[in-house]
Write a structure and sequence with these properties.
Blueprint (H helix, E strand, L loop, with lengths): L1 H7 L11 H17 L1
Length: about 35
């Protein structure tokens, strides 16, 4: 689901991350996608 939103380039609202670490990873991935785009 997260990847779908990332591919669309939409803003992601993380409703309930499994853990703070996972949230950090997702945020880093968003930054990478922004750099690529």
């Amino acid at each position: 689901m997260l990847l779908k939103h990332l591919n669309k380039g939409d803003t992601i609202g993380i409703v309930s991350p499994a853990s703070p670490i996972e949230k950090e990873v997702v945020l880093k991935n968003i930054q990478v996608f922004k750099n690529l785009g």
